[in-house]
Write a structure and sequence with these properties.
Layout (H helix, E strand, L loop, with lengths): L2 H7 L12 H4 L6 E5 L9 H8 L1 H14 L4 E7 L3 H13 L6 E6 L2 E2 L4 H9 L14 E5 H11 L6 E8 L5 E6 L4 H5 L10 E5 L21 E6 L3 H6 L3 H11 L5 H4 L2 H4 L6 H9 L5 H4 L10 H6 L6 H14 L23 E2 H7 L20 E5 L9 E2 L6 E2 L4 E4 L9 E2 L4 E6 L3 E5 L2
Parallel strand pairs: 1-2, 1-5, 2-3, 6-9
Antiparallel strand pairs: 4-10, 6-7, 8-9, 11-17, 12-14, 13-16, 14-15, 16-17
Length: 443
């Protein structure tokens, strides 16, 4: 079986973000392969810990991926503040004799250093074109856990586990490895809280993570953590804002100061993303399709909404509303043909330090270690979602009553469709099969 087939059959996807199937991303040729170890979302602690725990496996998976895409250089991007992890990585690279191919690239402690387009610029000096992806400027990007899963796939192991950080206003701030499909509530209770009636949970990091919609759901391969806060925390109030509320506040208060644009990460690397213009379009009801199109350049990093705006308004929600409107009408932004991109001269003066961002979010008291715990979790039942990746949902290949073993294929991607198969994360009996998930009960 080829390397790419091993990655595909193991069900490897981006372990964070949208969950793009890794075999599809690696089906390319690139000059650079970049490992995203920035973990720029405040408070999350997965990548920095697994890079210290499994440096050889991660570097090997990263190297294999780089060799496959014929990259001339493989660069691990990690923030300079993680000096202990950097030392481990550099020593491991030397020990493995890969110093002529793999190197460590030091990133500033800014948000969003982990945005893949910002990462590409920081590590290579190149700007990904508007509406483009890294391969368009010769780069392939994967994160640390994905590289680990690539290595495991080369050893014949499917993706059946994932790492998550539990953090926030809780007694036990921890990072833990759990089987895919574990009930979300089983994981949340590892925080030391049993009654969540006074809490809200952010699914992911505090900047881009939404409020958790279903506490009775199941863990997916791309889950990276939960931020647990009291309902009256200002960040929870901000995330609870509806589109109608945002429209009213924006129209009444926006003074067109353009701070949202001046600090926008995509604007600073040379894109024409200008959130203050989107605020103007919405506030004045301008029926100008061309002006609205730039909303499609927004990466939804939330910096404009949670940090930049001095009036506490909602530029990110405005961009999202306009993006959805354009999508419904089938209208797409088309970059200028042949346009050359370069970072704006003011960029180095407008980078947002993580500590300042955390303080603005009123999370400084929760910015503490969340050490990897050796505590195991053995759920009585798991629910393996059939759609936990970009692309088509999987089709079940098992039926209710079947006995399955950990790692066994239970859901396959339709022929010629983009996607990633799913596997049993525990051994047991299939207790339910429907169009959304396959449930397996431990026996």
């Amino acid at each position: 079986m080829s390397f790419l087939d091993q990655v595909k059959e193991a069900g490897v996807i981006g372990a964070g973000g949208a969950g793009f199937p890794t075999h599809a991303k690696l089906n390319a040729e690139a000059e650079y392969i970049l490992l995203n170890g920035a973990e720029c979302e405040p408070l999350l602690r997965v990548d920095q810990q697994i890079m210290a725990m499994y440096p050889e496996e991660i570097i090997k998976g990263f190297e294999m991926s780089g060799r496959h895409v014929k990259a001339k250089k493989a660069i691990i991007g990690i923030k300079g503040k993680h000096g202990d992890v950097i030392e481990i990585l550099e020593n491991t690279i030397e020990k493995m004799g890969l110093g002529d191919y793999v190197s460590v690239g030091i990133l500033p402690d800014i948000y969003p250093a982990g945005d893949e387009q910002v990462l590409v610029y920081e590590l290579t000096g190149r700007t990904v074109p508007e509406t483009g992806i890294p391969i368009m400027c010769g780069c392939v990007v994967m994160n640390a856990e994905t590289a680990l899963n690539v290595y495991l796939a080369s050893q014949g192991k499917a993706v059946t586990e994932t790492y998550l950080t539990l953090v926030g206003d809780i007694p036990n701030r921890i990072t833990v490895k759990v089987p895919v499909g574990t009930p979300v509530m089983d994981v949340l209770k590892m925080s030391g809280i049993d009654d969540f009636s006074d809490y809200e949970i952010i699914d992911g990091g505090p900047m881009m993570g939404p409020l958790l919609a279903d506490r009775n759901g199941a863990i997916a391969k791309k889950n990276k953590g939960f931020v647990i806060l009291k309902k009256d925390h200002p960040l929870i109030q901000k995330k609870s804002c509806t589109e109608d509320q945002a429209k009213r506040v924006n129209r009444a208060t926006c003074e067109q100061c353009r701070m949202c644009t001046d600090l926008c990460p995509r604007f600073l690397i040379g894109h024409d993303m200008e959130p203050h213009k989107m605020m103007r379009v919405l506030n004045y009801g301008l029926d100008d399709v061309e002006s609205k199109k730039i909303a499609q350049l927004c990466c939804q990093c939330n910096l404009c909404e949670y940090f930049s705006c001095p009036a506490n308004l909602h530029p990110r929600l405005t961009n999202l509303m306009l993006k959805n409107e354009l999508m419904a009408d089938g209208i797409k932004y088309k970059p200028e043909e042949g346009k050359q991109y370069s970072a704006r001269g003011s960029r180095s003066y407008r980078l947002v330090p993580s500590k300042r961002l955390i303080a603005r979010l009123r999370l400084s008291s929760f910015d503490m270690p969340a050490p990897m715990t050796g505590d195991s979790i053995a759920p009585a039942e798991v629910k393996i979602m059939l759609s936990q990746h970009v692309g088509a949902p999987c089709q079940p290949v098992v039926k209710e009553g079947d006995s399955v073993t950990e790692g066994q294929l239970i859901g396959q991607v339709p022929e010629n469709a983009l996607g990633a198969p799913v596997h049993a994360s525990i051994s047991g009996q299939v207790s339910e099969v429907n169009d959304k998930y396959i449930a397996i009960r431990r026996v």
